[in-house]
Task: structure prediction
Amino acid sequence: MLSQLQTLVREVDGRYATDAELLFLQTYLQTARLRFSAYQKIQKAEKKIVQQVKQKLVVSDPQLFRRGKVDLSAKWQRDTIRGLRFCAHALLVADEDGLEENFLLWFQAVMRSFKAQSSCNMTYKVMQDVVRQYLSPQEAELFCPILSQARLLLGQ
Result:
């Protein structure tokens, strides 16, 4: 929404915006309460969400956080928290394009350099299931596509 708002301000300089140009804003306002509520729930449950995702991943692949003798679980946790926060921010401001441009493409390069695509794919898949425990169905409907976008880009 923020990038769309910036574009709108640039394009309508000196004139009134058309109904079509304002449609995204009307759509955002219709979902604003859900977005605020979901954002606050995610913020409050962040540690639990990440812990549950980690537990499920370890059950499915006990060696997922190991490279030889090196334990990568602390790094995974930092990266996962960062990703969850960026996704939650994109939910709040309805800016999936900004999420991709400002975080996901950069983080994709980082994850590829560490050959962590499989871990990312599994992490964001499991995270979609876990967050549904904390969000209403309507909130999850707004947030899970954002996690899916993260999974798609980071898991390649």
User: Anything to note?
Assistant: The radius of gyration is 18 Å. The mean pLDDT is 94. Strands lie at 66-67, 70-71. The helical segments are 2-11, 19-60, 73-93, 96-113, 117-131, 137-154.
